[in-house]
Design brief:
By secondary structure, the chain is an alpha/beta fold. 37% of the residues lie in helices and 17% in strands. It is built from 16 helices and 16 strands. Strand 8 and strand 9 form a beta hairpin.
Length: 471
């Protein structure tokens, strides 16, 4: 294969295609030369070229380019210079001049390219002058690395505070509506990490923790920790209110280091950080994002507690989500709670049912089954207090009394019927709705035990005991 034509004439489309193919061949040839030269120090460019050619490389040149027939040492500078010389559009480019320019710009002997992959920008059209200043510099030159260098770097292991949850170090957010139990859930995490016990059925790393909750009543906190009864309570530190809050990334990092904690829970985000306008993306990010550096400096996870809005999604701008490695959302509908996460790394936790008992959260069963059973208990309570109610009365009464959607009330009622926990006085017809009571309620219906059933033939009076089913 011959060298590309070194002239300033504009090549045709077919010539440009052939030239691109030649450049591909050249890059592969030089890559193999570099690999060979690494195993044979002090070798010359000519030695590397001949070794690759003798090895029967399919991209062997019929006539080697002049740049390859050189006794110069095959180092990074000369490889870069020969590459530019070969791709130059004119023949008056001198290798020595290019090498001098490269060394002057990058320091004598400093590698300017990654030898694993010679520069790939070599002008799509041979008439275009290569721009040497755009070659990828070494990391020591201006703080950058190319993607090949990054991918070749050994990957750092990701550490989780709880298996798959909360990067360590890092900062995460736990959100829930006010008075729904986010502080209680956070104290469960504090106790779990202090003991090294599971949190939501996930293994945790054991270590010291610090709890900063300036607005949480001490009596509530005390009562809950007594109920949790952590085995290693000495690992749990609470910031005393008599001391000023360690506001600011540097002060917080110092406070965490002084304790030697791997987890710092802050209740709540706005109270501690001083964010005035939670809807302002710039303000949220500018104030909270620097705490990531505090977490890294302290080698700990910072967990912010934050409020949800009325729609039960996090309060504020998208900046709240952007600063979190893990955003955990806790929601509670009646007596059934659920947790789900959005994560920067790892796998998002789907909607997972949690139950609360004896001060502890545990992973429960099917969310919708538990929710339906919870609604069914409310329906039972209403029917017990108001026996002989129609389906319409039950739906309206339960919906208003317990803030349950009418469709959910009907679904819960259907569950009660299926389980034969309610009975009616008749099947019900238009104008004469069925009346319902609990199956274990022996109180008779308010009427005399009969109802008027209209048929096409006549009007019948049917005793209560002869009617089965209902609607």
């Amino acid at each position: 294969m011959s060298t590309p034509p070194n002239n300033a004439e504009t090549p045709s489309a077919s010539q440009r295609g052939f030239q691109r193919y030649q450049r591909t061949v050249w890059r592969e040839h030089v890559r193999l030369m570099v690999a060979w030269a690494k195993e044979h120090p002090q070798s010359s460019i000519r030695d590397a070229h001949e070794a690759v050619s003798v090895a029967g490389h399919p991209y062997e040149f019929d006539a080697p380019p002049p740049a390859l027939d050189s006794p110069d040492p095959f180092d990074a500078v000369s490889a870069h210079a020969h590459w530019l010389a070969y791709m130059a559009p004119t023949a008056d480019v001198r290798i020595e001049q290019l090498q001098a320019q490269i060394r002057q710009r990058n320091g004598n002997g400093v590698a300017v390219i990654d030898l694993e992959e010679p520069p790939s920008r070599a002008c799509d059209d041979m008439g275009e002058q290569p721009v040497t200043t755009q070659q990828t510099p070494a990391a020591s030159n201006n703080g950058t690395r190319n993607i090949l260098q990054i991918c070749a770097t050994e990957r750092q292991e990701v550490t989780w505070l709880a298996d798959g949850l909360f990067l360590l170090p890092g900062q995460s957010i736990l959100t829930a509506r006010s008075k729904r139990g986010k502080s209680t859930l956070a104290r469960n995490l504090l106790a779990a990490v202090a003991d090294g016990s599971p949190f939501l059925s996930r293994k945790t790393i054991q270590g010291r923790v610090i709890y900063i909750a300036p607005d949480e009543p001490e009596s509530v906190m005390q009562e809950h920790f007594i109920e949790l009864a952590p085995e290693n309570g000495a690992n749990i530190f609470v910031w005393e209110r008599v001391n000023p809050l360690p506001r600011g990334p540097a002060a917080l990092a110092t406070a965490i280091k002084n304790v030697g904690a791997i987890l710092c829970v802050i209740d709540t985000l706005q109270t501690f950080s001083g964010v005035a306008k939670i809807q302002d993306y710039s303000e949220v990010v500018n104030i909270i994002a620097p705490y990531r550096d505090a977490a890294a400096a302290a080698g700990a996870t910072i967990l912010w507690l934050h409020h949800n809005n009325r729609g039960d999604s996090f309060l504020g701008s998208e900046g709240v989500l952007s600063i979190a490695d893990t955003m955990m959302t806790y929601r509670r509908d009646q007596d059934v709670g659920s947790i789900e996460t959005i994560q920067r790394l790892g796998i998002n936790m789907g909607k997972t049912t949690v139950t609360f008992n004896a001060g502890r959260f545990t992973v429960g069963g099917n969310y919708w089954q538990l929710l339906n059973e919870s609604h069914a208990k409310k329906v039972e309570q209403f029917i017990r207090e108001s026996p002989g109610s129609s389906m319409e009365d039950i739906t309206e009464g339960v919906s208003q009394s317990f803030s349950i959607l009418p469709r959910n009330v009907r679904a819960a009622f259907a569950h009660l019927r299926k389980m034969k926990r309610v009975v009616c006085n008749h099947k019900g017809t238009k104008g004469f709705p069925a009346l319902w009571k609990l199956a274990d309620d022996e109180t008779p219906f308010a009427d005399d035990g009969f109802f008027e059933a209209k048929t096409k033939q006549s009007t019948l009076f049917v005793p209560l005991g002869e009617v089965e089913g209902g609607s």
